[in-house]
Amino acid sequence: MAAKVANDWLKPIPIENVEETGKELGRGSYGVVIEVIVNGQRCAGKKLHNLISEGQVARKFTEEALLHNMQHHPNIVDFLGVYYAPHSTLPTLVMEYLPMTLASCLESNNLKIQMKYAILLDVAKGLIYLHQKNPCVIHRDLTANNVLLTHNLLQAKISDLGMSRKWADTMLTKAPGNIAVMPPEALEDNPVYDHKLDVFSYGCLILHVLTGQFPQPTNQFKPKPSRKSADDYIKVPECNRRSYYIEKLPQVSDLTSLVKQCLSDDPTKRPEIKIASSIIEEFISHVVVDGVEEGFALVDVISDLEIRELGIGVGVEETAKALLTAELTSLLTASWMTATIVEGVKIGAEDDDEEEDGAEEEAEELAEDVAIDKQLENQTFLL
């Protein structure tokens, strides 16, 4: 029955010319992600295990396809459509292929600090889009494993909308994803929550990205100092449960206050994700305008945050060349132009200084020559 419903519901979003390569990209409890080729383009195909073709799992799988098909944003993984493999009654969801998870990049520690802020901004923009949908879409499982990066690290995209749900007039009442990034209201016996759940998870993501460590929380309860029974416990505030990671935030970061707000036990005290995005964007702008702070090299920031939006490569050397072109010069502020040397790349300022110094010396020499000539003229006249 579930397979028939899937066939009926997904008829409007078929995709053809799909070839399975046989390469497995990932595997989970309910399904597998495989590599597929669609019209010559490498893509990812998500399918259920062969033994799961009926029941709630199959229905949820179909719902994911329908929900994902309605989301179109630069910071959400593109959903391309569905196809049916031979001898299969359930669809395979076809999405754009992105080679890296944010979690793997953090584990290998190969992300520059300025790129980490850019990724956080991208994720916030993706959440803004989901939360502003009508009805609001809650991701419910936002972790570094569900943030994918393009091959050149120029863009981050939210993936895996399998846990996502629409939230209209009534709040959701079913426990969502990874409990380590869940707010207290989602951990109740009968959980009731809204889109502020994602804001809490986003606060955990900030900690993970900026410290490089997954913010595993401590126990939710601790014994009272003067307890009289074995059941005498008090609840530990969520910020305190992650205080170790909050204290490890880089000093250059101005996001400690934001993280604490996102991790508030009271969902009404958590900021909207749009506010969090504005704070991060303002911080990035502050770094770009004010130059070098705690290892933030200006051209690095421009290359990784600004130039990437113009479609230019991340390399510092290429960026330096690009900044000298006439097209980009008009986009640069005066403060940008004062930053001249990053990683051994010099942007012409030294040559300008030398020319100015040479011009001043020539002017001084010319003035001296004129003065001498005048003195000679006066001396000749007196004779």
TrEMBL record:
Gene3D superfamilies to which the protein is assigned, alphabetical: Transferase(Phosphotransferase) domain 1
All copies of domain Protein kinase, residue ranges: 19-284
Keyword annotations of the record: ATP-binding, Nucleotide-binding
Protein name from the UniProt record: Protein kinase domain-containing protein
Region: Disordered, residue numbers: 350-369
A GO molecular function held by the record: protein serine/threonine kinase activity
Binding site for ATP: 46
Pfam family, one: Pkinase
First and last residue of the signal peptide: none
Record-linked InterPro entries: Kinase-like_dom_sf, Prot_kinase_dom, Protein_kinase_ATP_BS, Ser/Thr_Kinases-Pseudokinases, Tyr_kinase_AS
Highest taxon above the source species: Eukaryota
